[in-house]
Amino acid sequence: MTAPPVMYESGEGIATITLNRPEVLNALNDALIGALREALERAAAEEAVRAVLVTGAGRGFSSGADLASVPPSPSLDLGELLRKRYHPVILAMRSMPKAVICAVNGPAAGAGMSIALAGDIVLAARSASFVQAFARIGLVPDAGSTWFLPRYAGDARARALALLAEPIDAAAAERFGLVWKVFDDGELMPQARQLAARLAGQPPRAIALIKRALNESPAHELPAQLELEAALQSEAGRTEDFAEGVAAFLQRRAPVFRGR
């Protein structure tokens, strides 16, 4: 039996999505990208899932697009491939009303790096590496990299990473602001699961509203963002979870959030 290109597991409020082509460092072909989109949509729809963890099988997160599956030809339109396959995945990760953690367990290259950066919180193994490999083969960074990199690392670093196509290690990625925390290789997944469990225990409505506020922030001037915050706070303030959070604080106990 052929192994699925993406594995999906859920339990205790966490959906774990694993890119599963380890023999090619989880290179992205149509089957994997399609299955990843389906897994993300499933996680978003399952009420019991409160946090999502994305990682790679084997010794890498993803080596990027499987170039063997898209040989250059006059009829090849990579832009259409991006619109149909990659864009829905990146947008699903960013717009999902649940926290998405990416645990980068090895190389993250090209669009594989883009997928990693689309997570709300990015963790990395100490052996992980990141590279915008596009310029090496005559292409432009895609799948959101030209949006993420300037915002996370700053314009100067974004330009160097994209133009030089040089890999950086996990420590540099953390220093550049691309990664939240770096762990020894054996500790990455235990720490990622612990963080996912923590997020799964947070108030779901608040998590969704926080993501919305942050997603809309780049398009707003300060007055518009202040108004959005006020509108979202009005909504959050009417939830049962807010009442529970305050009650738990005053009673000095752990809150139990139910997403209402």
Task: Write up what this structure looks like.
The chain is of the alpha/beta class and 260 residues long. The chain is built from ten helices and nine strands.
TL;DR of this structure?
This protein is α/β, with parallel strands linked by helices and 260 residues long. 46% of the residues lie in helices and 15% in strands. The longest helix has 18 residues, at 78-95.
Describe the structure using short key phrases.
three-stranded mixed β-sheet; 46% helix; Lyase 2-enoyl-coa Hydratase, Chain  A, domain 2; 2 domains; globular; 9 strands; 260 residues; six-stranded mixed β-sheet; alpha/beta; 2-enoyl-CoA Hydratase, Chain A, domain 1
Gap between N and C termini:
43 Å
Strand proportion:
15-25%
Note poorly predicted spans: none
Counting DSSP E segments of at least 2 residues, the number of strands comes to 9
Give the H and E element order: EEHEHEEHEEHHEHEHHHH
CATH class of the largest domain: Alpha Beta
The rounded Rg comes to: 19 Å
Helix amount: 40-55%
User: Can you tell me the CATH superfamily of the largest domain?
Assistant: 2-enoyl-CoA Hydratase, Chain A, domain 1
Based on the coordinates given, report the CATH architecture of the largest domain.
Answer: Alpha-Beta Complex
